[in-house]
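Re: that chain you flagged

S.,

Sorry for the slow reply, it's been a week of failed gels. I finally had a moment to sit down with the sequence you sent. For the record, here it is as I used it:
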Amino acid sequence: MTELTGWLFDLYADPQGGMTIWLLGDDGQRHCLNQAFLMTFFASGSAPRLRLLWRFLRAQSAATLLSRAERRELFSGQSIPLLAVQVPQAEKGNAIFQQVQQSFPDLTYYDADIPSHLRYTAEHNLFPLARCQVRLADGKNIQEITPLDTPWELDPDPPPLRSLSLEPDCDPAHADPQVILVRYERYNYRFPLNPPLPMLLNLRALLNRHDPDLLLTTWGDTWLLPLLIELSEKWGVSLGLNRDARLLPATRPEHSYFSYGQIVYRGQQVHLFGRWHIDRRNALLFDDFGMDGILEFARVTSLPAQEAGRVSPGTGISAMQIVTALRQGILVPWHKQQAERPKSALEAMRRDQGGLIYQPLVGLHTHVAEIDFVSMYPSLMVRFNISPETAGENPGNPSALEPFPEPGSPGLVPLTLAPLLEKRLRLKTRLGQLPAWDPRRKTHQARASAHKWLLVTCFGYLGYKNARFGRIEAHEAVTAYGREALLRAKEAAEDQGCTVLHMYVDGLWIKHPEWQAAQDFQDVLDEIARRTGLSIGLDGIYRWVAFLPSRLNSRVPVANRYFGVFQDGTLKVRGLEARRRDTPLWIADTQMKMLECLAQAPSAEELPEYIPATVQLLRRALADLRGGRIPLEQLLVSHRLSKVIEAYQVSTVAARAVTQLQAAGKSLLPGQSVRFLYTRGHPGVFAWDLPRQMDRQTLDLQRYQELLLRAASAVLQPLGIEEKALNDRVLYGMQRVELPGLRPGMPIELPGLAPKALFSSFFSHRLKSESEKT
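Prediction finished late last night. Pasting the structure tokens below so you have them in one place:
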């Protein structure tokens, strides 16, 4: 008998039966192993119908093992009699189930369409990249596999992954690439695409030499790997993209779907066997947490890394709930079974109110503390045992922050979230203790970001219409407890003499006339934690923060539109153009530079000293625009399509750009983004991905100028400079006034624009007015 130790790398149904397991061995080898595994689903119904199903399956040619069984049904909490259907070849299980379901649609099915990798990891208590020990019967077949760690360790042993990077020399949607750029460790290669044969031979030699575990690509799903597969078939050169030579790379088609109020597009995918492929452009959250976050996402959700890199956090939460249910012996329904309980209109209004938002006090405020509940909604679910099977008719007593009347053992959702929440809290604590230079911070922050996305999504998934374990009453209970906790936090702060400037679902912005240091606010934090029973933390203290009004009405505040500077000089920006995906990069960069300039002010009282330099940044940006010094790529506007082009009844700028692409033979699906430039005259836009070049002389400079001034006004408006003043004074005065060598603190004289002394006077008055108001 042979023993191996290493990391569980890849896992999928073996075409010959059982499961194929790839192990990154401690001996440096990549081991391809096999283990027998049965795929099991259950059917529930009347005894006569189950007997008919028994006879139906006995008459089929496919081998199945049939037996009677009992399992616990989640919502009733009772064990129910079932017919268990076991399929020796896991990959054939779905086909057999589809045949059964079509022949017996009146039966209720459980554990029916669960991916084989989730079944296997749940049964053996494993997860991707788990350290494990394997006992082999004959050198390849696994007799026993034992995990040596858990997904909840803060410092798991890093797997020895070998990574090779592949990308074209340009965006394939915009122009035809000519070269493939390859990088492995410190080596860089350039393979021209034409002629194809030398490129294929060189790439094959490189893959054979380095044998990478991971192919990290750019546009690999949607362009590069499909092209390589096509060329390899045409020229008869096997690249060996798969380590498992028995299988071909698996492709999944592109599709669009509706999620959280918007259409999302997912490009086609290319998955490998025995080797990973991750496309930076097609990985949903790669820009947010990179490969470190993807690996953590895979560990905690039990999804294979190639899946974890491409699916939404909602899919990750669903996988975690399924694995928890399987390990607890709870039946996983094939379809959602719990419809919303009938309610009167008054009851619906009372229960379905969402999170609490307290509109901010518009203006500039100093020495403001931002405090947040730590993962508030997941903490509420765990603390008060809020789960679909526990919510029932009575959502507890939020006004008293009391637990549910029958807490009992933890429900499925709290049982799933508790270890993830605990790990996130421990990780956040460690991040707070690590110095800024510590190299572990980057990895820890990526992992914490993966946890954040999962925990944020778990709340929405409680009320998702298609969630297997969703129930709207549980969703409503969470928001009810959240509103009560936030109100208690507000009362605790006000009882300590603080003014509450703003509240937003799980956070508060408070100030005290005599408090400026973090320790000054500690008593408030302790009191809030005591009254709510939830963990709360100080996000930071602002030197100054500006809450912005609506652009349409300056008297109407906007809940999530503000910017400010913490005492350590860190900027926080929400709701401004720099945070929007459709903002041209040139405008976003200019706005951020203006904010960074103001952030240099040691205090709010000294902000007027930095206004001249901020205005000068704006002037230079406008001068660069008129002088043609801004690259066209930085002027691109990106709009996401919400429907097919034929459904647009109004000819929007995005619709016009898509029409141009269609005329050139390119098509876009809902959820994809169209990139374009504003131009003068008809049709007013130029689609960026057209095959022809744009004439820069047609660029609509006036439109870009207006967009920049609008973004600049959001920064300067709290300091008393409205958008109209920028148009009338800064913009038109810039032709007549030169300010060479302008630096912070230098007086600025502009036609019709108040000098620095007047800025200072106005600013002091504004601060005083805001103080009196609060």
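What I noticed first: Residues 612-636+688-761 form one domain.

Talk soon,
D.
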